[in-house]
Amino acid sequence: MTDESRDKTALITGAGGGIGRATALTLARQGTRIASLDLDGAAARKTAETIEANGGTSWASSLDVTDSSAVLATINEVEGVLGPIDCLVNIAGIYRLVGAENITDEDWRQMFSIHVDGTFYCCRAVLPGMIARGVGVIVNTASLHAIRGQAGAVHYSAAKGAIVGLTKGLAREKASSGIRVNAIAPGPIDTPLFRGAIPPGEADALIAKRTSIIPMGRLGRVDEVAGVIAFLLSDAASYMTGQIVTIDGGEVMN
Q1: Which end of the chain is less congested by CB atoms within 10 angstroms, N or C?
Q2: Taking the CA of residue 64 as centre, how many other CA atoms within 13 Å lie in the half-sphere pointing to its CB?
Q3: Which CATH architecture has domain 3-243?
Q4: How far apart are CA 183 and CA 137, in angstroms?
Q5: What are the tens digits of pLDDT across the range 194-246?
Q6: Least confident of 38-42, 75-79, 98-102, 205-209
Q7: Helices (H), ranges, the chain
Q8: Nearest to 166 by CA among 139, 192, 191, 145
């Protein structure tokens, strides 16, 4: 447990599994109090139970990040239970593979609603408290696909690109208020979300093809992403804001 994280509270969306769960567990081991939020409330509670079983402090709830009223109410509830939110980590998201000509209006709206609206609603809700205290850290989740594009998922690439703009704009606007805002841009990470987008029976072939263009030759692990998020939230990154940090095994060098 580090001195800097012992008295902090972090709110994490998408904490029920994958990168979100790994981040919650990593921060909890450092002594941070965790608000574990996920559309799947049962999954969020499992994360919280694991944290508490290991001596940490956590609170869990279901949250639909596309509902701005629910976001505000949940954040108020979190602060009533765990104290002021020092760190916000926006991870909630979806990933779907579909050709551009087959993307429906609803597909497009849903992708932007969850990724862009949800990220903004959470940021907006924590900002007043962070501004009043003169300190706060936000980490958003963009994607390598926001940088290099993604065939078969242009709506995902576009939504993640919007998060890049949101992150840089917010960082520039709130730096003078003592608030740092950065984003991670993961490449392919071995998560249920990633594997769930692969047609049945095609996982081995698709993963082999995908990893063939990654210099490190493999998918990333959730703990590797969680470690970068923990760094960005820490005082070790105190002079970093407005940055998009790729975690991709070297793929952007190609």
Answers
A1: C
A2: 7
A3: 3-Layer(aba) Sandwich (3.40)
A4: 11
A5: 777 777 777 788 788 888 888 999 988 999 999 999 999 999 999 999 999 99
A6: 205-209
A7: 3-6, 18-29, 41-53, 68-82, 105-112, 118-133, 145-148, 154-174, 192-196, 203-211, 222-233
A8: 139
Provide the CA 38 distance to its chain's centre, in angstroms.
11
On whether the CB atoms of residues 147 and 246 are closer than 8 A, the answer is yes
**How far apart, in whole angstroms, are the C-alpha atoms of residue 85 and residue 91?**
16
Domain locations along the chain: 3-243
Radius of gyration of the chain from its Cα atoms, rounded to whole angstroms: 17
Active-site residue, selected from the candidate residues 95, 121, 156, 239: 156
Q: How many helices (H) and strands (E) does the chain have?
A: 11, 7
Backbone angles phi, psi at 120, to 5 degrees: -65, -45
Residue 152 host element (H or E): none
Burial class from Cβ neighbours inside 10 Å (0-12, 13-18, 19+) for residue 107 reads middle
